[in-house]
């Protein structure tokens, strides 16, 4: 569990205790008989302070629960506990979003309006959100306590979670009795909220203690699934820094030139199946999924040019000699940056309809700051199992705009990839990082030269309907081809973006072409001489 998640849980617990400020900010409210929610009533001074505390608690709790769902082992009781905590956060946000109109314990007019139901929807709905906050708070503490005792995780939750859940139930019952009697409601409700704050503190401490525990394999950490273990037996796992990247390779022939294949945004290894079938037997092939994509585990760092270059360098170094890089779409950013920073590891390159930005700009960098949010979204959506149900259909829908052929693998393989919440979170993260990478690459272009290696740039124009945009796209690729004196662009006017599915022949020809050339030779036949016939 990352350290910042512990800090977020601690902040959530403290923010939920803003009612303690009432003696300084709202001394006129009745702390003995008045609702705590009256502090955040729209007509009360400093109501934004109290509503803001609920909002911060809800959002941070959702992030913590989302990270736990994404990072920690999925067992029935622990998964239920983190989902309940996530729902606690949702309804805490609801408390802040739907405040009371006024304070009925202080104003007779407000009490009369409330009894005659002449108040806003937010005022009426607030009782619903407050009730569910308590319900899901109790369920979260109870199920996490059961998970702790059953699986041997988070000892503090095992010791105190069930006690906090029991105390909250007692306090909730006392709140109902106080409402019937009409006295002591304020005191009982403040005790009830204090117990919830204590529960959040215990969760923060449990995560901190689990992070600090000296064990070789933390029991709260998610182990490789059966599919991932099979994946690692079939392929290999590379560590670029602290990142784990699923890589599939074929080592035959052992003396074949090494080929390193990388996908675009949200791509998976099986997109390359038709192309690899043409290349197999001639090259030593390595096709990999970036962290969080395909069946690879989530990354430890957000997507960035620095991270992707480190991963490519780790995979290339393992080959024992300079590699030929084949990169698609946004992977072209990574491949170019890799060649500029590590020219010693790159022999040649084929860019398959690569991304290109004519004038990249990025006023605000959001990818690193948004990583916890994207992880939480992915974990939350993944916990609903909706990606598992809808992932293949969403993939087919997207494929219609980028390819003219069907999936190269069975539906269950597609579901095993695009049914993961981690993949959704990674795709969101890569989308946020796209312009940042483009700007960083532009900076590299100003500082570091591109090595004089053979290069072929394949340009798909079949999905660019606007003639002006088609010319701009082709012009950008022409500039990429001109990065090296041994570069060439090949235009494919009728083909769509996923050339590795639709035109494996064009990619195989490009790979053979760059291997037929050695830097230092003249632009002879077979490298530049056939461009006209292919539309370059």
Descriptive report:
By secondary structure, this protein is α/β, with parallel strands linked by helices. It folds into three domains: 3-212; 226-361 and 436-521 and 528-534, Alpha/Beta hydrolase fold, catalytic domain (Rossmann fold, 3-Layer(aba) Sandwich), CATH 3.40.50; 367-423, no CATH class. It has helices at residues 3-15, 22-25, 47-71, 76-97, 108-115, 121-151, 155-181, 185-212, 226-234, 273-279, 305-319, 331-341, 367-383, 386-399, 411-418, 421-447, 467-481, 499-502, 504-516; strands at 236-240, 243-250, 258-262, 284-288, 323-328, 346-352, 455-460, 487-492. It has an eight-stranded mixed β-sheet with strand order 1-2-4-3-5-6-7-8, with helices on both faces. Strand 5 (323-328), helix 12 and strand 6 form a beta-alpha-beta unit. Helix 3 packs antiparallel against helix 4 and helix 6 (121-151) packs antiparallel against helix 7 (155-181). The chain is elongated and about 90 Å long. The model is unreliable at 214-242 and 522-536 (pLDDT under 50).
Which CATH class of the largest domain is shown? Alpha Beta
Shape: elongated
CATH topology of the largest domain: Rossmann fold
Total number of helices: 19
Percent in strands: 5-15%
Order of helices and strands: HHHHHHHHHEEEHEHEHEHHHHEHEHH
Q: Architecture of the largest domain, according to CATH?
A: 3-Layer(aba) Sandwich
Mean pLDDT over the residues = 83
Q: Ranges with pLDDT <50 over ≥5 residues? A: 214-242, 522-536
Radius of gyration: 29 Å
Largest sheet: 8 strands, mixed
- What percent of residues adopt helix (DSSP H or I)? 55-70%
Strand order of the largest sheet: 1-2-4-3-5-6-7-8
Distance between the termini: 51 Å
The number of domains = 3
Number of strands: 8
CATH level-four homologous superfamily name of the largest domain: Alpha/Beta hydrolase fold, catalytic domain
Structural class: alpha/beta
């Amino acid at each position: 569990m990352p350290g910042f998640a512990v800090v977020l849980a601690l902040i959530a617990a403290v923010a939920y205790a803003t009612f303690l400020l009432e003696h300084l900010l709202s001394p006129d409210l009745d702390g003995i008989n008045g609702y705590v929610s009256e502090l955040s009533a729209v007509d009360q001074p400093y109501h934004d302070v109290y509503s803001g505390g609920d909002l911060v608690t809800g959002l941070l709790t959702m992030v913590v629960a989302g990270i736990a769902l994404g990072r920690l082992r999925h067992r029935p009781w622990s998964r239920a506990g983190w989902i309940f905590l996530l729902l606690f956060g949702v309804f805490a946000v609801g408390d802040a979003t739907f405040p009371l109109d006024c304070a009925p314990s202080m104003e007779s007019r407000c009490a009369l309006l409330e009894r005659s139901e002449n108040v806003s929807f937010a005022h009426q709905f607030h009782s619903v959100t407050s009730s569910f906050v308590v319900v899901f708070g109790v369920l979260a503490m109870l199920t996490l306590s059961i998970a702790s005792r059953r699986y041997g995780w988070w000892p503090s939750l095992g010791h105190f979670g069930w006690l906090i859940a029991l105390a909250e139930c007692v306090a909730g019952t006392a709140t109902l009795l106080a409402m019937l009697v009409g006295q002591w409601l304020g005191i009982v409700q403040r005790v009830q909220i204090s117990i919830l704050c204590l529960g959040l503190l215990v969760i923060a401490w449990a995560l901190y203690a689990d992070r600090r525990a000296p064990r070789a394999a933390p029991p709260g950490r998610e182990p490789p699934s059966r599919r991932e273990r099979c994946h690692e037996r079939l392929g290999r796992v590379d560590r670029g820094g602290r990142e784990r990247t699923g890589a599939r390779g074929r080592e035959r022939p052992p003396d074949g030139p090494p080929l390193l294949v990388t996908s675009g945004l949200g791509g998976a290894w099986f997109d390359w199946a038709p192309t690899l079938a043409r290349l197999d037997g001639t090259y030593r092939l390595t096709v990999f999924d970036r962290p969080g994509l395909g069946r690879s585990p989530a990354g430890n760092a957000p997507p960035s040019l620095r991270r992707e270059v480190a991963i490519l360098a780790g995979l290339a170094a393992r080959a024992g000699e300079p590699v030929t890089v084949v990169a698609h779409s946004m992977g072209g950013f990574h491949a170019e940056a890799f060649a500029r920073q590590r020219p010693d590891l790159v022999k040649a390159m084929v860019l398959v309809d690569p991304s290109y930005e004519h004038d990249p700009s990025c006023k605000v960098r959001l990818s690193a700051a948004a990583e916890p949010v994207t992880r939480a979204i992915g974990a939350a959506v993944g916990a609903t199992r909706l990606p598992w149900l809808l992932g293949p259909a969403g993939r087919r829908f997207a494929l219609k705009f980028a390819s003219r052929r069907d999936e190269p693998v069975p539906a269950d393989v597609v579901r095993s990839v695009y049914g993961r919440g981690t993949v959704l979170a990674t795709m969101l993260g890569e989308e946020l990082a796209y312009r940042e990478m483009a700007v960083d690459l532009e900076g590299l272009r100003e500082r570091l030269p591109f090595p004089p290696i053979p290069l072929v740039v394949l340009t798909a124009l079949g999905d660019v309907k606007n003639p002006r945009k088609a010319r701009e796209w082709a012009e950008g690729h022409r500039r990429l081809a001109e990065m090296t004196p041994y570069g060439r662009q090949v235009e494919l006017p009728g083909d769509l973006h996923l050339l590795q599915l639709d035109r494996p022949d064009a990619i195989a020809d490009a790979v053979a072409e760059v291997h037929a050339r050695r830097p230092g030779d003249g632009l002879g036949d077979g490298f530049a001489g056939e461009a006209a016939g292919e539309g370059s």
